[in-house]
Write a structure and sequence with these properties.
This protein has about 80 residues and is mostly helical. The chain contains two helices and no strands. The radius of gyration is 32 Å and the shape is rod-shaped. The protein starts with a helix and ends with a helix.
Amino acid sequence: MIELEKAMDKFKTEAEISKLTTEATKLAFETLKLHAESVKLHEEGIKLRRESRWLPVIWATAFVGAVTGVARMLN
């Protein structure tokens, strides 16, 4: 009977190890997905910063165009 109990304990322990390994694998996969999302957001931030550098040029061009248009209307 003691041998059977030892075998059952060993079986339970192995089952628990298997469950924990499965859970660890799921968590590792979730971590990879979150990391990929983080990289994507970082790239988007870089893109937005690059684009925002042109905003002063765009505003200055629009202002010069508006001033030129008003000057032409007044002449």
